[in-house]
Amino acid sequence: MNSERRGPGFYVLTAFFVLFVLFLYGPLTTIFILSFQGPNGGLTFPMNGSSLRWFENLLFEQQAVGDFGGAFSRSLMLGLMTMATTVVVSLLAGLAFRRRFLGAGPLFYLTIASLIVPSILISLGIGLAFNVAGLEPAWYSSGFGAHLTWTLPFGLLIMFAVFNRFNPAYEEAARDLGASPWQTFAHVVLPIILPSLIGVGLFGFTLSYDEFARTLMTSGSFNTLPLEIYGMTTNVTTPVLYALGTLTTVFSMAIIVVALASIAVLRRRRARRVAG
Amino acid sequence: MTLSRLAPRLAPYLQAMPLTLILAAFLVLPIATIVMVSFWDYDSIRIFPAFVFTNYQETITSPVTWSTYINTLKYTVIVWALTLVIGFWVAYYLAFHIRTATTQMVLFLICTIPFLTSNIIRMISWIPFLGRNGLLNQTMMSLGIIHQPLEFLLFSDFAVVLAMVHLYTLFMVTPIFNTLMRIDRSLIEAARDAGASAFQILTNVIIPLAKPGIAIGSIFVVTLVMGDFITVRFMSGGQSASVGLMMANQIALLQYPAAAANAVILLILVLLLVGGILRIVNIRKEL
Which residue of chain A comes nearest to B134, CA vs CA? Predict the structure, then answer.
C-alpha cells in the first residue's frame, strides 16, 4: 500500500480524521477560552472581556461550596498510591504469567472481569462490603481498592504486550554469564521494560486522578477532585467551573507530557548505547 | 537444596499473589456482598439481613424497570454503532494511510490523550458548545439556518449519545488499530494481485481479520454504556433514565437491597452480552 500515489480515499479519510480530532479537542478548547472570561462574563460565549478573575477566584478566595485544595491533594495522594501499587503489582503479575501456574486462567479472567464489570457495581459492592463489615469507607482504603480494580487490568494488559515481545535470549545470555536471578532481573529485564513501566505508571496515575464512578460510594466523607467538580456543576454558575476544568486538564496533560518525554529519553539513550 | 529447587516453582504464585488478593478483596468480595444484600430487607432507615425475593420481584414487575432497561439498551445500540463506524475508520486511517511509524505514533497519541483526562470535564465542556446560547446555536442563527435556538442540543438523548461517543470512541480505536497493524500486508497485496477491488479487499480481507479487535472494542463500549450513569444524568439534565442512574438514585435513597438486586440483573445482562460477543468472535488469539 505504501510507496503508491495517494488515492481519493486518503483525502476523504484525512478529512474524517481531522474532524474526529476536532470533535475530541474542540469542546475542551472552548472551556479553556471561556475560563479567561471577563469578571462579568457568563458560562457561554460571547467573551465579556478577558481576565484571570476566575483563576484568582478559584485559587485565592473562599468558595461558597467545596474544598478545592483539599480535594486536589487527596486526588494527588490517591493517584500516587494507585500509580505505585499498579506498577509493582502489574509487573509482578506480568512476570508470573510468563510461566505456567495453577489458576493462571481464572486469575486472567478475573482481571478482565474487573475491567468490564460496570463501575457503579464496584462502587456499590465495596461500599456495601465496608458497610456490612462495619468499616468506615475512606478514599485511602475503599477508594484506593476501587481505583486498583480499574487500573490493574490496564497495567496487566500492558505487561502482557511487553512480555509477548520480550526476547528471552537476553535473560539466557545473562544467566550463561553467571548472573543470579535477581541480577538478571535488575540489570537486564528491568532496564529493557522500564519505558513500558512508565506507561503503566501513567495509566495508573491518570486513571485514578480522573476516576469518578468507582469513587462515588467509596471515598467516604472527603471528596476526591472529580467528585468535587461534579458537585460544583450543580451549584456553581460562574466560569470558575471552567477555570477549575482548565487547571486540572493542564495538570493531567503535564503529567502525560512528562511521562511521554521520559519514555522518549530512555528510548533514545538506549538506541545511542546500542549504536555506540 | 530443596529450597533452591522449590523457589522457581513457587515464584509465579508469589508474584501473582498481590493481584489475586487485591481482586479478591475489591472485586470478588464486593460482588458477593451485592448478591447477598440483594436478598436482604430494608425499611426507610436501615437494611437488615433476611432472605427475601421482594427486591427482585419489585424490580422485575415494575414497568419503570423495563422501560429503563430498554432505554439503556437503546443507548447501547446507538453508541455502539456510532463508535464502531467512527473507531474503525480512524483506526483504518492510522494503520493503512499513515506511512511512517513516528507519524502513526504521534497521531495515535493525539487520539489517546483525551482519554487520560477527566470525563467530567469533557462532559462539562459541551455546555458552552451545545447550550441554548451556545456556540452551535449562535453560529447557526447568525448564518440564518435557524431562527430560534434549538432546545434539544443540550440536556437530551441527543446530548447523551454525543457525549458517550465523545468519551468512548477511543475504546474502539485502540483495539481495532492493534489488530489492523498485525494484518500481514502481503495478504492485501495478494488480494489486489488477484484482482480484488478496494471494497472487496476491505470486506473480504481487512474486516474479517479485524474482527477480534472489533469484538474487544465492542465489549468495552457495551459494558461502559450499560453501566453508565453519570453521562446520562449530566447530559440529559435528569430527563432520561438508565439502569446505572436508577441504581444511583436507589443508593441515594439508601435502598441498598433494591440497588443490589438491580446490580445483579445488570451484571447478568452485561455478562450475557459479553458472552454473546465472544461466541461470535474468538478473541483468544489477541490476548
Answer: A44
pTM, whole model, 2 decimals? 0.89
Q: So what's the ipTM on this one?
A: 0.88
Distance of residue A164 Cα from the nearest chain B Cα, in angstroms? 10
Among A13, A101, A112, A128, the strongest candidate for a mutation testing the B interface, having the largest count of B CBs within 10 A, is A128
Residue A60: burial class (beta carbons within 10 Å; 0-12, 13-18, 19+): exposed
Domains in chain A, CATH or no CATH each? 65-235 (1.10.3720.10)
Out of 1.10.10.10, 3.40.640.10, 1.10.10.920, 1.10.3720.10, select the CATH number for domain B62-286. 1.10.3720.10
Please check whether residue A9 touches B, CB under 8 A.
Answer: yes
pLDDT-derived band at A66, boundaries 50, 70, 90: low
Residues with Cβ within 8 Å of residue A265, at least 6 apart in sequence:
none
**Range list of β-strands (E), chain B:** 41-42, 47-48
Compare CB distances from A27 to B129, B198, B227 and report the shortest one's residue: B129
Of A44, A203, A230, the CB nearest to B120: A230
The residue length of chain A stands at: 276
